[in-house]
Structures are given as C-alpha cells and as structure tokens.
Design goal:
This protein is α+β, with helices and mostly antiparallel strands. It is built from 4 helices and 4 strands.
Length: about 100
C-alpha cells in the first residue's frame, strides 16, 4: 500500500516510505527519512551577469548530529512549509527495542 501512495496522492503532497529494521533507533529512523527527502533551490552566482544554478539539497543537512524530538519537529516544520508530507514507517514490527526507538 505504501508503494502506491505517490501515484494516488493529489498534487502538492509528498510521501516518503522508510523501512525499519531491528537495529534502528529514533535517530536512525529520522535520518533515513530526511536523507531521502530532497528539495531544489536556485543559487545566484557572484558577479555581473552571472547565472543562477539549481542545487538539490537533502533535508538531513538541516539536522544536528545529535537528533532529538525537538530537532525532528523543527525539520518537519521546515519540510512541511514546502509541501504536505506523508511519512510511512514500513516494517515497524521489526524494531526490537521500542523504548529506545519511540
């Protein structure tokens, strides 16, 4: 079902599916999510008549090294300002230490 989301979602919505495994933690799951979410921006080159170039950036670049619930909330707010998000954690039952994960 999660694989079908991109085909059936209305325009302006983005879905991201992440597979969980037994070694995942809170931080590693969110790192997976944000490393797959991308956006583009135009960057103006320096100089008269310089052209702008488009660069692709992953959202994980906005996360601190130590990922916390607060940093995830801030990153989600930033991502949601660009598109409506649907995040699917697939194979959630494979997580072995649910206290450490959520």
């Amino acid at each position: 079902m999660a694989n079908l989301l991109p085909a059936i979602l209305p325009e302006g919505r983005v879905s991201q599916r992440v597979n969980c495994d037994g070694a995942d933690t809170f931080a590693s799951l969110w790192k997976k999510v944000f490393s797959e979410l991308r956006y583009t921006r135009k960057k103006q080159e320096i100089g008269f008549g310089a052209e702008s170039k488009t660069e692709t950036i992953t959202f994980d670049q906005h996360l601190p090294e130590n990922i916390t619930p607060s940093s995830v909330r801030q990153a989600l707010a930033f991502a949601a300002s660009m598109a409506k998000l649907i995040i699917v954690f697939d194979e959630f039952d494979r997580l072995t230490d649910k206290k450490r994960t959520f």
